[in-house]
Amino acid sequence: MSQKSKYQSEASWRLRYRPYIVAAVLAFVLTMLVAPEVNEGDGMEPALKGGQVLVVTKKSYSANRGAPKLGQIVILEKTLAPEVYGDNIISRVVGLPGDEIEIKNGKVYRNGKEYITEGGISGAEGSLSVKVSKDDVFLLSDNRRSTMDSRNKKLGTVDMREIKGNVKFIIWPLSDLGGVQ
Asked: Which residues does the UniProt record annotate as the domain Peptidase S26 (predicted)?
């Protein structure tokens, strides 16, 4: 076999399998960065509805790596409180490390100021006062009447390392396709 035909054979092989190799590498990278998750409950209504398929960007947080942003919707590991809530817990970050969170008369206060979630359903029942530790965040669901969040004593403030990722997009049903606020 001549040098030229050997080179053409290698080039032909590369061209033939290149799309498959690129697709495999891209699929591997995407599975390391994002994951689809199904919203099983109504805890984040009206922002998220039950049955929607969400795209979650995988992100790890800790006191050393930084905290999620205030108002960000996050998803927790399923194993965090399985006896209380068998599905993924999806909630909004309303308290960061060092914050004082207080709930009284159906209102949420962060560091002494009323905390307002745009478009959320009010009704944070009961009273609560908590200081968020340096490794934790305080989570509340938008639908405060019917869900699992940091008000529940079995969950409480959540260690940032238990956050699986950030909810970014709704991909199903197609009528709801778009970003999450």
From this structure: 21-172
